[in-house]
Amino acid sequence: MEQILIGIGTLNIGGTEKHVVDIIKSFNRKKFKISLFLLWQNGENLKLIPKDVIVYKVPDFLTRFSKLAVLFQSIKLLIILLRNKFIVVHYFLPHMYVIGGLISVLLKKKIIMSRRSLNNYQKKNKFFRTIEPFLHKKCTKIFVNSNSIKTQLIDEENVEKKKIELIFNGVENFNVKRINKEHITIICVANFIYYKRHFDILKSFSQLKSSNVRLKLVGNGSSSKINQIENFIKHHKMKDRVDILTEQNKVCEIIGQSDIGLLASEEEGFSNAILEYMSCGLPVVASSVGGNKEAIIHNKNGFLFEVGDTKKMTHYLEKLIKNKELRINMGKQSQLIQRKKYTIKQQINAYEDGLYGLL
After folding, report:
1. Model's pTM, two decimal places?
2. pLDDT at 259
3. How far, in Å, CA of 35 to CA of 348, rounded?
């Protein structure tokens, strides 16, 4: 049985964190022994990790002190890597990749990096921009979840094409029994952070001519950001038509009782939320960035608009709101595409094939 260490900053609620949980739960236990390392927090999703997985948690007394936690866990990681014979260490998200990567290079360990977003964050962090290209050269493999990321790594970060492996995200196949409602529900599943552009969504929603429409914003974020959104809703007199839902464990049940999936992000790697919309049979309206352009075929299972183009967003939403048949047909196409290309089984098979190549 081969040992693998998976490292990530935290298992708080988020797309990459959910992805890590999914792959850990689905790996073949007869072939791989999985260990999980957390860098600065433990997070809500930790309770979803199977009991047979060794978890190197952040001590409870350090979870409120992120810098001390990172220092403590970095020393712990060094000791763990010295004591254990992992065939590979697999790091997710920039902080874990940079810190874990440098320690792993020092100890001459095989490294896999999963890049799950475009590299916009490097523009704001010179340290990442300097260190990551060095680590790319030391990586055995780099897993990506969209062609957009793959292209960016090759063109902008000079990564060898043969080192990159494309593994699309996968989600469960949801079968939803819809209930009859008097109104149409638009749903956006996205944490309340600036690049998800919730204010674009609210601006577009405020311009809809249809009155029998409700908007659900599902995600987590800082209280200050949520307060800003609530103030916007109140100012535009939309309080009775917009719901903000935080700390939701059964998001797919909420998606399943919605009618249109929406995402307005200015950057995406490959959105799990979009795949969950599709799995539940929803047409999708989304910004034309990253993997969104690969999951959504314009005019087939949804519509794409340029980032910040709230007029187009409103136009496409109105089109779906007014035409029930179009919503149903596009929703069916969404589900067919998801079942064909973006399942958990396909994702795990691709991961395991990639790992076997390292043996």
Report:
1. 0.87
2. 96
3. 17
